[in-house]
Amino acid sequence: MSSQFHSSSPIGLFDSGVGGLSVLREIRQQLPHENILYFADQIHVPYGARTLEEVRALSETITRWLLAQGAKMIVIPCNTASAAALHFLRQKFPEVPFVGMEPAVKPAAEQTQTGVVGVLATPVTFQGELYASVVERFAQGVNVLQHTCPGLVNEIEQGAVHGNGARHILEDALHPMLNQGIDTVVLGCTHYPFVIPLIQEIAGPNVRVIDPSPAVARQVGRMVGEASGEGQGARGEVRFLTTGAVEQLQRGLRNLLNLEAPVEARPWNLIEKEASFYGK
Ligand code: DGL
Questions:
Q1: CA torsion 164→165→169→171, rounded to 10°?
Q2: How many angstroms is it from 16 CA to the middle of ligand 1?
Q3: Is 189 in the pocket of ligand 1 (CB under 6 A)?
Q4: Does domain 105-211 fall into CATH 3.60.21.10?
Q5: CB proximity list for 253: less than 8 A, separation 6 or greater
Q6: For this structure, is 149 an active site residue?
Q7: Which of the listed CATH numbers 3.50.50.100, 3.10.120.10, 3.30.930.10, 3.40.50.1860 matches domain 11-101+214-275?
Q8: Which of 43, 45, 47 to mutate to test the pocket of ligand 1 (most atoms within 8 A of CB)?
Q9: Percent of the chain residues topping a pLDDT of 70
């Protein structure tokens, strides 16, 4: 790894909004000394309703911005951005270590007893080549059903994780899959771990819900060791930034992580300007 990075340089994380906090929570538990810069692109949320090209362009700008801020690695705790941009970003920035997300179809296929598993994710995630390749590589002989949850990301952004809105969306997604015999549900969007209690209530105790966040955090731990010498010198500081309103992210931190923390707001045009300083 290049010597321009120090162990105290932050790990850059980005998501369309509060979804990545489900992964941040795990990273904080496993790597409490790492400094983290969490970027919520809430002016553009939800990503899942955009085109692959749009999400790729947003992801490139944010990645550049995080690197311009001195991030030593980029974690994309967002299945949608990973589906649209991970491969592209690795090619564009070969000097940077990346950790992305893909739906956890592999453990689901290994664990299912009925041979039927369900995946919940956004339309962009299902369109991407990453998803198709995961199913092809890991789910031979398993029936993989998929469903989007239109509107669910917005409910979670509002903190309405126990409300009727979220419940109805999840019932619409889960009932057809339950009728076809799923015994495992893969959460293919990082917003969804915040509604696990609702999912479990609808699906019943015999259905296993797979949240990939702990595995992603372990992967970050392995890579960060390589990138910086195990986080010595870092003080476990987390900086939160949104392209939307400060209160929007603060409300998410309070409702979803029970955390009161300062949040910086940066308008998108400034992000674009500052992003252009990296690699030019
Ligand atoms: N949290 C995201 C994901 O994992 C993005 C959802 C969205 O913005 O639509 O897919």
A1: 10
A2: 6
A3: yes
A4: no
A5: 18, 21, 240, 259, 260, 261, 263
A6: no
A7: 3.40.50.1860
A8: 47
A9: 95
CB of 59 within 6 A of ligand 1: the answer is: no
The answer to whether 232 touches 82, Cβ cutoff 8 Å, is no
The two tokens of residue 39 are 């970027």
| Gap between the Cα atoms of 114 and 109, Å rounded | 10
What residue ranges of the chain are covered by domains with CATH 3.40.50.1860? Answer: 11-101+214-275, 105-211
9 lines ligand 1 (CB under 6 A): no
Q: Which among 111, 274, 120 has a CA at the least distance from the CA of 192?
A: 120
Contact status, residue 51 vs residue 26, Cβ threshold 8 Å: no
Token code pair at residue 163 = 């409300």
Of 11, 75, 178, 189, the active-site residue reads 189
Burial of residue 172 (number of CB atoms within 10 Å: 0-12, 13-18, 19+): middle
pLDDT in tens, 110-148: 999 999 999 999 999 999 899 999 999 999 999 999 999
Tens of pLDDT, residues 185-229: 999 999 999 999 999 999 999 999 999 999 999 999 999 886 655
Which residue ranges of the chain lie beneath pLDDT 70?
A: 1-6, 226-233, 280
Would you state the structure tokens that stand for residue 202, as one six-digit string?
């609808």
